[in-house]
Every structure is written in C-alpha cells, then in structure tokens.
Amino acid sequence: MTKRMTVLLLGSGGREHALAWKMAQSPLVEKIHVLPGNPGMPTKDGRIVCIEGEIDAAARELKPDLTVIGPEKPMAEGVTDRLEAAGFTVLGASKDAARLESSKIFSKEFMGEEGIPTARAVRCDGYAAAVAALATWDVEGKGVVIKADGLAAGKGVIVTSNRAEAGQALHDFMVDGAHPVKAERVLLEETLHGREVSAFALCDGERFIPFGYICDHKRAFDGDKGPTTGGMGAFSSKDWPSEAARAFINEHIFAATLRGMQKRGAPFKGVLFAGLMIDGDDVKVIEFNVRLGDPEAQALLPLIESDIVPPFLAAARGDLSACAAPKIAGETAVHVVMASAGYPSPDMKLGEKIALAPVMNDTAQVFFAGVKDKDGALVSSGGRVLGVTARGATLAAARQQAYALLENISFSGAHWRRDIGRQ
Ligand code: AMP
Ligand code: GLY
Fold first, then answer.
1. pLDDT score at 277
2. C-beta 289 within 6 A of ligand 2
3. Cβ(231) to ligand 2 under 6 A?
4. Of 165 and 177, more confident
5. What is the pTM of this model?
6. What mean pLDDT comes out for the span 10-22?
7. Which domain-ending residue is among 136, 169, 189?
8. Whose C-alpha lies nearest to ligand 1, atom 2?
9. Ligand 2 within 6 A of 287 CB?
10. Residue 126 domain-assigned?
11. What CATH number did the domain enclosing 164 receive?
12. Where does the pLDDT of residue 251 fall: very low under 50, low under 70, confident under 90, or very high at 90 and above?
C-alpha cells in the first residue's frame, strides 16, 4: 500500500475546521496538522491535530505532501511563494496572484483591462482627490461605495447614500491614524443592485473546475439589519444561480481571470472566490477573494460528496486536466453562526464556557472558530465562536435541522440570526 499523505493546513477559523474535517474523510490522508487551528478541531482518532509555531519551520519538520492555506493574509505576505521555493506542494495563491484580493485597485483595473464585468469605479490617490471625487458624485441619487485599497478584514467597504457618512468614511480610512482601516488610495464605486452570491473555482494556474455557489448573510441581525460582520451564516441553493448564469461566470469571469493573470506572469493557483451581484441576466463581480469564504466553506464542503484531496493535490501541482468537478449532493445546506455578545463591535464578551450536548448525525456538523481551551473546557475567544451546518432535501428542512441542533449548544450572551437561508 502506498504511504498515506501528511497534510499541513494553515488557519484557525470555522473555514479551516470545515477544510480539516472534509480532508480527514479522504482515504488518501494519514494526518492533518492544523497550524494553529483551534481546540474544537482535533479528533479522538488523531487524524486532525493542532500544532504551534511558524509555518516554514512546521513544513520543514513535517515534510507535508500537501499544504493548504486557508486565509488570505499569509498568501498576500508570500507564504505560498516561500514554501514552493523550498520545494513544497501548496494549494494557495502566490503573493502576486493574491493581489486580486489584497489590492482593490489592482483587482478593479485588472477587471477593466480584461473586460470582466464589474461596477464602474473611480480610483482616488490621496485624500484630496477622494474628497474632490465625492463632491461631484450623485451620492443622494445613486449611492456610493467606498473601498479602501489593501486587506481590511471586511471593514474597508462602506455602502451608503448619505454624503456625510461617505465623507466620514474617507476621513476614517485616509486621515484618522487611530482607525483600524488605513488607506492611501480608495475606490469610489457605483452601487450594484440584485442578489449576491459567492462563486468558487479551484484553479491550477491555467485551468479551473467550478467548486460551487453559496450565499452568505453579512449583517448581524435578522432581516439584514445591523452592522456588517464577517458573515453570520450561509446557505446553498440547488437551482440558483441559473445554468445560464453559471456558464457566463465560467467563461467571462473564471476563465477570463485565469487568462489575465497568466498574461501578467502571476498565474492563479488555489481557490478563486468571485463575490457576485446578479440582477436578472446581468452578472457583475463585486470583488475577488483568493480563498474559500468563511462561512461559505462551512456550507459548501459538507455538500461535496466526492474526495476533495485529489483535486486539491492536482491543483497544487498545477495540473487539473484529469480532474472532474466535485460531486455535489442534490441537497441544500444551511450554516448558522453563533457569535459572542457584542460582535461585531470590538467590545465583546469573551471567555464564556460553551455547553455542548452532542447529538450530531451524518447530516449535521458543528464547526468551531473563536474558541480556546480553559482548564479542559472550550471557552469563547473570538467574535464568531462556532457554527452549525445541516443538510436537507429543501432549504426549509436544512434550516429546521440546523436550528434544532443549535438548541443543544449554548454559551452566555450567544447571539445568532433566526433567518439564515430564508430568502
Ligand atoms: P467587499 O469587501 O468588496 O466584498 O464588500 C463587502 C460588501 O459590500 C459586499 O459583499 C456587498 O454586499 C457590498 N458591496 C461592495 N461593493 C458593492 C457595490 N458596488 N454595490 C453594492 N454593494 C457592494
Ligand atoms: N464570507 C465572506 C468572506 O469570507 O470574505
């Protein structure tokens, strides 16, 4: 029998828990080492373990057959390039390719040059230019979207039709040294209308296989009210986007992006995530990300029935030509996030003990995110603490399962949306 694989996975959130859980089902895999992971991830059989330290040293020590990078930041910092230069097989974007996410301006100009449909935008270099552009913008009539250039962990985008708020955002991003988002350049962008979806493609630099479509809920409270969060839940829909929209996305967004990045000497390898706005037949890119979404991954991966390790390995090695698209269940999935009191404000109540009566079955799964170990018990340590995914024949059935499962989990101050997957 051939030796089974050692996998190194970088990241610590719910997305990485879902990735570890899914890869651990592969008969090709011996063990998954998650760096740093979280204490909700390890399995009793030892197939998933968490490790500490720094990625380069961990790779040298473990000699993984495959390294998977979950979050965007290490990719933007060049971790993929470093590990590949040291001879490792990595599923993740290079630093240059990660600019699709790490620079909103690169990404916007790239789409313009490649004819990839997106919202019209004006690039402003410096605060004075941005203020001048805003002064002539029809904010009250058409609204405006302000985007800080650079990685901002989801906090660098303001959508508004209020001029004062738009002006404040420019000041916050470009002048206020104490604000968490700092940008020298911004985009002012037209507001798109329609329905949002996250579309994924697994890419080898040249080819891709479509990897699924998931909708997420970004606002904190029911009815899409309240502040924007990293994502309070996600769901799949069997028949949306339409076949025609999917074909358009493949040809005019994914294939066009791969060609354009190859042309620039920065072939895209890894998971390409197109955040899309769909309005009737009109599909436009809101943004690109260079990774699976969180919490989209937690809804998507449990729906994949085939082994994802062969396509991950093939993409990382740069040749997907022998891989088919993953087999996706003919069911739907709903993922509901439980968040800490106060989230998404910085003023959160953490350190709460999590009570869990495990009644898992093969259609439901808990994925942990912001948790740590305290005296042998799991306590909350971040905004998004955990999430529950359930599958069902219909969205209603999946919702019902997910919310029933959630009844078995509690921690003080926990809040979650009651309307995930209700369209
Ligand atoms: P981003 O970080 O670019 O994904 O933006 C965060 C969220 O802001 C998106 O998921 C959209 O809901 C919203 N958004 C960004 N750009 C636009 C746009 N041009 N029109 C409407 N909504 C937008
Ligand atoms: N859920 C959106 C993201 O991962 O950026």
1. 97
2. yes
3. yes
4. 165
5. 0.95
6. 98
7. 189
8. 154
9. no
10. yes
11. 3.30.1490.20
12. very high
pLDDT computed for residue 359 by the predictor? 59
- Residue of minimum CA distance from atom 3 in ligand 1: 287
Separation of 150 CA from ligand 1 center, angstroms? 15
Separation of CA 321 and ligand 2 centre (Å): 28
At residue 368, does pLDDT exceed 90?
A: yes
Lookup: tokens for 252: 């005019």
CB of 296 sitting under 6 A from ligand 2: yes
Residues 56 and 131 in one domain: no
Residue whose CA is at the smallest distance from ligand 2 atom 3: 293
Ligand 1 centroid, distance to 159 Cα (angstroms): 7
Please indicate whether residue 159, judged by its CB atom, sits closer than 6 Å to ligand 1: yes
Q: Are 384 and 410 in contact (CB under 8 A)?
A: no
Q: What share of the chain is helix, strand, coil (3-state, %, to 5)?
A: 30, 30, 40
Residue nearest to atom 5 of ligand 1 (CA): 157
Q: Are residues 279 and 233 in the same domain?
A: yes
- Range 5-37 burial, b when 16+ CB lie within 10 A, else e: bbbbbbbbbbbbbbbbbbbbebeebebbbbbeb
Q: Residue 228's pLDDT band (boundaries 50, 70, 90)? A: confident
Residue 24 shares a structural domain with residue 83 = yes
- Containing structural domain, residue 342: 332-410
Residues 223-230: contacts with CB within 8 Å, 24+ apart? 223/419, 227/344, 227/345, 228/154, 228/157, 228/344, 229/154, 229/339, 229/343, 229/344, 229/383, 229/384, 230/153, 230/154, 230/294, 230/295, 230/344, 230/383, 230/384
Task: Count how many domains the chain has.
Answer: 4
Residue 1: pLDDT above 60?
A: no
Average pLDDT value for residue range 376-383: 95
Q: Which two tokens stand for residue 333?
A: 């999935």
pLDDT of residue 42: 96
Residue nearest to atom 15 of ligand 1 (CA): 286
* For the CA of 193, the nearest ligand: 1
Same domain, 293 and 203: yes
